[in-house]
Queue: 2 jobs
Job 1
Amino acid sequence: MTIISNKGVVLKAHPKGMPKVDEHFELVDRTIDIENLKLGENEFVLRNLYLSLDPYVRLTLKEHEPKHERTINKASKKQLVQIGQIIIGAGVSEIIKTNNPNFKVGDLVYALNLGWEEYSHIKSDATSNFFFINKDLLKDIPLSYFASFIKRGGLAPYASLKYIGKPKEGETIFVSAAAGFVGQLVGQIAKIKGLRVVGSAGSDEKVDYLLNELKFDAAFNYNKVELDKALYEYCPNGIDIYYENVGGETLEVVLNHCNLFARIVACGMISQYNITDPKEKYGVKTLENIVTKRLYIQGFVVTDYIGTDIEKEYEKEIIEWIKSGKIIYKETIFDGIENVAKGFVDMLNGKNIGKYIVKLADY
Amino acid sequence: MTIISNKGVVLKAHPKGMPKVDEHFELVDRTIDIENLKLGENEFVLRNLYLSLDPYVRLTLKEHEPKHERTINKASKKQLVQIGQIIIGAGVSEIIKTNNPNFKVGDLVYALNLGWEEYSHIKSDATSNFFFINKDLLKDIPLSYFASFIKRGGLAPYASLKYIGKPKEGETIFVSAAAGFVGQLVGQIAKIKGLRVVGSAGSDEKVDYLLNELKFDAAFNYNKVELDKALYEYCPNGIDIYYENVGGETLEVVLNHCNLFARIVACGMISQYNITDPKEKYGVKTLENIVTKRLYIQGFVVTDYIGTDIEKEYEKEIIEWIKSGKIIYKETIFDGIENVAKGFVDMLNGKNIGKYIVKLADY
């Protein structure tokens, strides 16, 4: 091989609100000459195998808008993608060229800074963004699972539920956006721990999936019921842990249903992310519950746990749970770089049950 | 002594909004015959020496109004005072008659269930509401300090700052309602721990007191400045701990100024307590900061700490700090049962700097 094709997805325009495939993304047909490409110190060429389509990438696509100076965006300014640039995500890659002494050709890595492209030339010392995949595990676990689930994707819900939620047998957990990747995993781990697990989702199909495949104790379609009534019905003993993915009015209602000393794991507040004017955000009126019920609320991001003992503990437990069938992981795998933008937009529109993954190459 | 006077303050009408002395309270002139009074098992007669005038008592004066069924009031239904009943508070008393084998006549106790009256006949086994006062300490510390400050009153701010706020040298703490009893103590303890201490209060006199007597690093009158601007000016490095006494719009603005991993000690949200219609409460629109900055928010009540090792640790430290002059405790002592209602209403109206105490009898 000398010069080969290296298609990739670049940002065509900064989306406002929900991105559209044709308006905001462009598939570009490029080439790469791997043999003759000269690597700088500690550089890499990766052959990308699986891309994970994650909601956080949406935050990197917006234009830089200074808000309240002390407000921290989930995507910092330097992570924002410029128009014409390849979009950056996470996934599984094979190292096919490097001069970094800590890596060798043929290593499989979970990489946090992959381009949405077939081959990535990583120009920085990327060691802190690369994590080795133990090939021995591949006899039991599909390689695609390492594009997110076994690695960073599952670590966040696992660690936050365990160390912020502090689940105890017999308690009730309520999970919003429960059919999403995070919600599914949180609910299943909570079942393993012996909790009553109640989830909300946006379609009857998702509710069926939660009840019949994941064995949630209760689930409801939030478009069809009034949340306050639903929580009386499905959480008869109140809520001990709220796994918060949506924010806004949902949080306002849930606070009224929390028990004394309930824990709120603040994973995301997705209902508020597309509201750019701070005055238009939903105002939560029930915060006195924090004082009167001695609630505990904590935010986190996955990087708080990466590289800690909690990460090792997670990988050990999750692999056992997958092997023993205690955790069901649902993924939909699309084929080819041509399907990345469409899969990403469908995921943002909530079409997915479980994780969306794109397979870029055979391994 | 046989039959003696025992004046007390009863509830005349349930206040809505701010109570008024003549409308809602009545001084009743009663008698008590201590010698001939027959005690039931484990009963007591107390001679009340000092009453503490505390904001929480206001919560016990309202009519029972079922709100959201799962909402917990700070005062539970059984704590609510009925019209014509003696109001219940905390303070220092001398036991003058008892058949409880764990107590003897002459013991001084900090009692949580005193009537606002000169003598109280305690009909229940009140052991869990009585705490012995070590008379050896009285050579260094005025007895009035035991009516709240050294006991329950100071324990709450001490423990919550230490165990929820987790103060570290060099950090910045912002305290709302900083000239109140809780705020003063929190600010002074934070100074001892080496923090930059910034407080807000509602009058220039209070601001002067915070700056000149308590040596806060900065303080401002919230009626005269815009909070957002003030926090940029007085907290140049952002806020690491917010000691929350007021809630509502203050909390909304403070969240924007919090640093990564800031802690919010949710002591009270007094700005919201007099708003009875849930729809009229202030809606806080900046909660996304919890996720993006990984904030930690926790509510508590003092009973979470009572009887724990933290309480012993508190009493030891606070007594050392008072003796060494590191903590200034400001109290205003009124004389006589006739002044209880007026002092209480003045305190609710924010007239006090420091603690209001009523002396009922010499010791």
Job 2
Amino acid sequence: MKELNKYLQSHSSSEMHPAEIAKILKGLNDKDFSEAIKLVPKDLVGDVALALPDRYFDDVVENFNAEELSHAVSELESDDQLEFMQELEDVDEDKASEVFHKLDAEDKHEIAKLKKYDEDQAGAYMQLEVFTAKEDEIVQDVIKRFARLRKENELENVQNLFIVDSNNRLLYTVGLDDLLIFDFSKTIKENIEQSEESFEPKSARDTEDIKEVVNYFKEYDLSVMPVVNDEGILVGRITSDDIYDIINEHATEQMYNLAGVDDEAEEDEDVLKATKKRATWLGINLLTAIAASLVIGLFSETINSMVALAVLMPIVASMGGNAGTQSLTVVVRQLALGEISQTDAFRTIKKEVVISLMNGLLFAVVMGIIAWLWFHIPMLGVVIGLSMIINLLMAGFFGAMIPLLLKILGIDPAIGSTVILTTVTDVVGFFSFLALAKYILL
Amino acid sequence: MKELNKYLQSHSSSEMHPAEIAKILKGLNDKDFSEAIKLVPKDLVGDVALALPDRYFDDVVENFNAEELSHAVSELESDDQLEFMQELEDVDEDKASEVFHKLDAEDKHEIAKLKKYDEDQAGAYMQLEVFTAKEDEIVQDVIKRFARLRKENELENVQNLFIVDSNNRLLYTVGLDDLLIFDFSKTIKENIEQSEESFEPKSARDTEDIKEVVNYFKEYDLSVMPVVNDEGILVGRITSDDIYDIINEHATEQMYNLAGVDDEAEEDEDVLKATKKRATWLGINLLTAIAASLVIGLFSETINSMVALAVLMPIVASMGGNAGTQSLTVVVRQLALGEISQTDAFRTIKKEVVISLMNGLLFAVVMGIIAWLWFHIPMLGVVIGLSMIINLLMAGFFGAMIPLLLKILGIDPAIGSTVILTTVTDVVGFFSFLALAKYILL
């Protein structure tokens, strides 16, 4: 509380940054938070709400009425307006529609426009605010218009001037660094005439997969990209700060998918939702664990005649599961980063098989000796060693195969691959160990 | 090959993009690659080498002599020069020193300067090329200088003008969007006088942790940030394209650490290196698996008198491991994204315990019924149900505790946490199930 007051008093409103305010708010307990959030300048409430982790969102909105929230939304850029309204709908649908009705016509229209897009489409991430000019405008006039828009706070973070035709079709992109060295007394057309090609825009389609757009940003070192619709009409722009968030979100999604966790459910305040989603994956895991147990059940008699097998069998399964997870994680991640292409499939599988075979041989010897010394049965060492080699070999092969196959089938290689893999390593681990024991030892 | 020729012939050299060339090269087999790489315009070889995945690097450099490589390096920006030279050192130290000696004095000096920094320091990621001006310069003159530098290809991707004093100490940052609406006939000082605060630079220290710098970029929606040394002297800048790469690298590192894989070893062409690193984690896993087996060994007699226990015990361990991994992954990731702060520790643990307790109860009932029906022993259902609840509860608690504790100890929460967790869930799973069986069933 004190810290927030100090910050608010020592900064003029133009100097305050939502991220700083959010950082102070995050350190407060629930009671202080409710009081402190009311001190936040009304113009910044929207930005602060979005800068805080998702779970704070309902704490923010319950402290303001629809009128205040509507003002907060009107101060946001279009993509943030959409994000705010969507989070508000999740928390309180009635309040959301009340807030929406209080917005002015333009904001309503823009939010509706962005809402059309799916969350994997580029359009869902764009800002509608762009700085445009016509080819035949004189540079000086364009800059005057720019100065006016800047003063009215209509444009933030501008890095490019987009040149459009009379139908708003995107023709060229001019970086401000180029604009600065143009001849201001001439038209844009005259300025770019000699090197038109270098102003050709690298643009994204609004319906394009956002993952592709992120790849453009990375490969071409971009910090902003115009977005056009199917007629080539400029509809918005995506900026680097969107890309930071998307890269992080995709990585989170991938890690969560590998662990059998749903990213959207986890971000929600609702614990029951996360519990249900996790239960789904645990349920699938239960089925595969039962399958592995059925394999053990086939060898009840073998185990009955040598209890050492029951003691040792989880080691084989555990080592296979771990080695497989190593391969799987590397292949899933490299597929996502585009480091493995379709033509690399064979090379990838070979590499993973070689690595796991080498480690299989290493740990076969280590564990073989341990088992021999532990139970004083030399052949038990041979059995666990052989099954270790078999299981780690399978682990490497399937750790690479499963994600590659899912990718070819058009399924996200991170989803479900861990469960499939551990089914293989459990079944192969238990079966190879117990079957070898049955035929070699007994 | 044909595709590359077509691309090279249809584009003037100023239009060609290294990312496009890299994309075509990636699709080729080894033989075609060696021929095709020689067709790449000499000025672009450095950029193309860096745009390709790491494992192609030695294929690129072995096709050029030291003279050609030295030219390729001289065409790169300073941060890319360092990256190129470091990769070259990894591949061929002799060639690297030969290439280095052929560089001009300025390039040598810049590479040496950047090399001083650790890979977790901001300085290691910066470009040394910056566009600066003094306070008392007239804007018009600054722009003229800028135009000249642009023509000489000395400056790329400029978004800000950095204002420095006579000692090169950073005073202000002026975005090109602000510069564009300045009065060009006045000095910079006169232009910024009325709103000096808004030009105060948000800068990074060269020795600062790069993770902190990435957080600034995300929180403040930046696309470029100046870097200063301990005396406040401007030494370089970090741009959004560096941030994309760093965010991705950190996410990869985290995923790999959770799976017991070393990110640097995996990127290397050397399979033996990756195998060794993976073997280290598999070795640790073997020790914990043996610990779990020792627990099973304590109950040999119990298992001997009821083999159903050997069949069912892996299910309890497997469910615990999975539920624990769910909790662990969520906590590790949210810690990394700054969504969990120190004060949140208790809330986080409570949430994970509640979720796993609910799922524990659910799967206790499900598995209890299955075990009862499978082996026709009602109390066996009770035993597996109780141990399921105990193990999932521990899984949730330790899944949250382990990363939080590692974080407090200053250790990366992703490193080793999976192994510690599965040790807990294996030991608790086997022990609770077999001990309950011993006292309830026998």
